[in-house]
Amino acid sequence: THQWRGLIEEYRDRLPVTDTTPVVTLLEGGTPLVPAQLLSERTGCDVYLKVEGANPTGSFKDRGMTMAISQAKEQGAQAVICASTGNTSASAAAYAVRAGMVCAVLVPQGKIALGKMGQALVHGASILQVDGNFDDCLTLARGLSEKYPVALVNSVNPARIEGQKTASFEIVDALGDAPDIHVLPVGNAGNITAYWKGYREYAADGMATRTPRMWGFQASGSAPIVDGAPVLQPQTIATAIRIGNPASWDFALAARDESGGLIDKVTDRQILSAYRLLASREGVFVEPASAASVAGLLYAAEQGLVDPGQRIVCTVTGNGLKDPDWAVMGAPQPVVVPVDADAAAERLGLTG
Ligand code: F0G
């Protein structure tokens, strides 16, 4: 069979599973690595997009969740809990359904995209809106998992990182070697940690000849790692990365320093501009947080930090359908036409 079997089956020997681990999967992973035409032109490099919105629940979180929920099930957990800016909760809710488990999610009040809320709801999760930000939600989720019999499935759970590192394997498998630079949005910093682990493991085992430089980008109103201090009131339109005190802060710094990379910040304006460019010029619709990687690459290129001729991969982390408000906002209203070909052609500017 040619069907992709899900990342645990595809990379079983590189993951902490045994023959008796109950694999909870929606066949996640195996996502497209799409050549980016305009970005390649603008940078003089070979730029690719790792389109993680193509995962079953529409974000990279599914990679971590198949591992975390499988492990929780193996350990006999009957319930899982997470804090989330939306995607983790959507993924946890779906995988909990597959596992026959109860799922509880803690989200910052009024600060998550509607599509993500809808996912958690339709999958039957118990949702608590916390009067606080993501960092408060994570503190609460950790506390609950210590006191009550629920498994924590945030990226502080090492199984999450293990699952997410497989994205690096896929990229090396597709390109034949690691890229020169890998660019990611950074929120709680689990994903940059996971990619770096994956690249290092593949290189150590001779599956790649080298590791890439890791470039991470935060939103400028939520950039604790760049600013060097926790942000108490993180702000950004990219709600997925509206995080003021990343759990994997030290690991992100290690990824940056060990790889000779960088972590910088981009403004909401830069994020929205990259968001529109990806949709209108590359045909790839991502959510705003995902566009932070591309915004960062373009910003770095403007600063003269991108030597031509390199191979660069940007991870775009989540599907644009999760948060379509930004696509509609400011766009012209569609015009209404009668059922008449000539009238329709006129509005479309078509000439016979
Ligand atoms: N992009 C998207 C679409 C995300 O949902 C997240 C994180 C990130 C980037 C950042 O990844 O946290 O590993 O550095 N979302 C988490 C959530 C926090 O709850 O869904 P990170």
From TrEMBL:
Alphabetical list of InterPro entries matching this protein: Ser/Thr_Dehydratase (IPR050147), Ser/Thr_deHydtase_PyrdxlP-BS (IPR000634), Thr_synthase-like (IPR004450), Thr_Synthase_bac/arc (IPR026260), TrpB-like_PALP (IPR001926), TrpB-like_PALP_sf (IPR036052)
Q: Which UniProt keywords apply?
A: Amino-acid biosynthesis, Lyase, Pyridoxal phosphate, Threonine biosynthesis
Tagged with keyword Phosphoprotein = no
Q: What is its EC number?
A: 4.2.3.1
What does the record give as the reaction this protein catalyses? O-phospho-L-homoserine + H2O = L-threonine + phosphate
PTM N6-(pyridoxal phosphate)lysine: list the residues: 61
Domain called Tryptophan synthase beta chain-like PALP: residue spans: 24-318
Instruction: Report if keyword Lyase is assigned.
Output: yes
- Offer one Pfam family short name for this entry: PALP
* PROSITE patterns, per database record: DEHYDRATASE_SER_THR
Question: Pathway involvement?
Answer: Amino-acid biosynthesis; L-threonine biosynthesis; L-threonine from L-aspartate: step 5/5
Q: What's the protein called, per UniProt?
A: Threonine synthase
Q: Provide the species name.
A: Peterkaempfera bronchialis
